[in-house]
Amino acid sequence: MDRFDAMQVFARVVETGSFTKAAQTMHISRATATQLVQKLEARLQVKLFSRTTRKVKVTDTGAAFYQRVIRLLADLEEAENGVSQAHGLVEGRLRVDVPSPLARMILVPALPAFHQRYPGIQIDMRVSDRAVDLLDENIDCVIRGGPVSDQSLVAKRLGELQLRTYAAPAYVRHAGEPAHPKELEGPLHRVVGYLWAHKNLHFPYAMRRGAELVNIRGSYALAVDDGNAYLAAGLAGLGIVWLPDYMAREQVARGALTRLLADWRLDPMPLHAAFHPSRRRSAKLHAFIDWVSEIVSTVS
């Protein structure tokens, strides 16, 4: 039995709560995953899981063993990374999930420079704004705007995105230009709603001018959960939108969007990379995170 393979499978079963999910994320059969854990239990002469037809639960002994296993796996990865880095190599497959506008407008166009710096890193980039289960979906890290609510993850702040208020010229001609944010709560105006992934709700925007603070929710005819769709709705004149500078800059330059309420500001949106503690020592992950932080600092 390869103890390393068995410990990897054991750790993934603990993290996903399922032999089936663990096997899927590791690209092996469920039978293979089950056999490896059974052989590990036989070697240790302990029960690592209590199994029923409905669920798998780690035992107290298994939970204690898991803490040691993840340290061992992390030390092994760090040792391998140390050898690679000593020869100037950071390599491997990296699975990330990033917001669609950030991928399309910022990260993908800049990737040639990243691959020139790290030619050995292969990136699987999923593009979405939805909530992601990192362990269940075998994702190394996600990049998201706003706070990271999952306390089981490690979050690294990449920077801040400045938000401003915009609308299409056609919308302004039809509804008029608001002089105060409170007008956005009235019957003449509509906003485009954004459904935040962690709650699937449209949250109010806090707008400030000096000591004055107004929370604006507004009424909407359309709410979306994707950044590209949100921008498209604003361009189509479906309502007022709040956009980070990098999304609005080109549209304003070509006259497709008009900035509104310029004397009011919004709190910057923090941008985070989040990953499971078991990935904490991954050199390729930190190379990617540091690079994204560099790129964000040039556009925010």
UniProtKB/TrEMBL annotation:
Domain (HTH lysR-type): residue spans on this chain: 1-59
Annotated InterPro entries: LysR-type_TF_proteobact-type, LysR_HTH_N, LysR_subst-bd, WH-like_DNA-bd_sf, WH_DNA-bd_sf
Entry keyword annotation includes Transcription regulation: yes
Keywords: DNA-binding, Transcription, Transcription regulation
Gene Ontology molecular function, alphabetical: DNA-binding transcription factor activity; sequence-specific DNA binding
Any GO BP: DNA-templated transcription
Protein family per UniProt: Belongs to the LysR transcriptional regulatory family.
Protein name: LysR family transcriptional regulator
Species name: Halotalea alkalilenta
